Amino acid sequence: MATITFPKDFRFGVSTASYQIEGAYDEDGRGMSIWDTYSRIPGRVLNGDNGDTACDSYHRMDEDIALLKELGVNTYRFSIAWPRIFPNGRGEVNQKGLDHYHQFVDKLIENGIEPLCTIYHWDLPQSLQDEGGWKNRQTIEAFVEYSDLLFREFSGKIKSWLTINEPWCVSFLGYFVGEQAPGEKDLQTSLDVAHHLLLAHGRAVKRFKELGIPGEIGFAPNVTWYEPFSNQPEDVEACKRISAWFMEWFLDPVFKGSYPQILVDWFAKKGAKVNIQEGDMEIISQPIDILGINFYTGNVSRYKEGNGTFDCEHLDGLFDKTDIGFTIYADAFYKVLVDIKNKYGDVPVYITENGATYNQDPVDGRVIDDKRIKYLKQHLTQISRALASGVNLKGYCVWSLMDNYEWSYGYSMRFGLVHVDYHTLKRTKKDSYFWYKKLNQNHWFEL
Length: 447
Known about the structure:
Blueprint: E1 3-5, E2 11-15, H1 18-21, H2 34-38, H3 61-71, E3 75-79, H4 82-85, H5 95-110, E4 114-120, H6 126-129, H7 138-154, E5 160-165, H8 167-177, H9 187-211, E6 216-220, E7 222-228, H10 233-246, H11 248-256, H12 261-269, H13 280-284, E8 290-303, E9 312-314, H14 331-344, E10 349-353, H15 370-388, E11 393-399, E12 418-420, E13 427-429, H16 431-442, E14 444-446
Parallel strand pairs: 2-3, 2-11, 3-4, 4-5, 5-6, 6-8, 7-8, 8-10, 10-11
Antiparallel strand pairs: 1-14, 8-9, 12-13
Helix pairs in contact: 7-9, 8-9, 14-15
């Protein structure tokens, strides 16, 4: 039986996001967010679910930190809710919101858990959305004001920062595919939003450096890998296009100061372009200290004319799937990490999300989720391969600590190491929780 090992200084953690777990949507001065609004539009979210209560983590801080402590992680990636800090998106600061996060961060540190903070994980204040949201370049200024406050408030406490989580989802799922807030469907708008998100990221990084805040900063794109079905040029090009949509479209501007030409040309055929103003690319390409990578799935794909935006067909029947429908192609994790190293160099990488949906409920007080453990083993093995191949990996965070509000899927999809009963809010540690606890203790596991 093979043993997979990790360096002793490799950081193991778990991830969550504010809207998905906190609840308390109208308490202590919090303003409304775009997701509060979107989830109330009939038909947008499965079963009409919303994040009003979620996992009630706002009130269960001590219980959830105790779960982290027992799990043995040394890193907790969480996000701060923008509308808790600036209920109107800018201007007046909500001190109760700041006090909550100070208390939370202090307790993490007291328990030996390093905070890894995401500044923006999708809960845009609704007041900014009313002004156009990420379509409006003025939202960038509001984001810088918000980021500046956090940097000053938590300097010396939070040493690892991520500006924006999954800009692909915010821009393309939210403004082109239409499956997430605000649910629009326009290619040009999605390109404008993606560009504004990258500008907001660059401006925040610049401010972080100007302030001399101790620590490290980066962002967390979601990536995937599409392996060509054959070496035929049309298959190779189709996979390059759709992979670039997730990866190069956001990484090239940050690391190279330009958008990938393969997609610039492709979007031009569809009548869309990036509206770049003078100085934009210099702002976006501010040097970053760390790169967060969110990875869940990949596939083998091939050219098929007229199939989707990129003339690309996925061969979904080749792989098993998780309960949310994501194909399990663990080798793709290794391939995309090596590709990132080859394209962008040795920037320190944290896996900020990786996990699987399996929807078991407790039976006699136990949640047997062997499939999740298998998924984690498969993907952590690819992490080990990437480390052995020279990828500058520093840490790994499972999505997620606990079952939570899964955006447009509502409460129907369970990613957690801890089961949450959404009626009683009782937490039940799954078998995967205990498996991951052992990995945190040993820094090795057996296949």
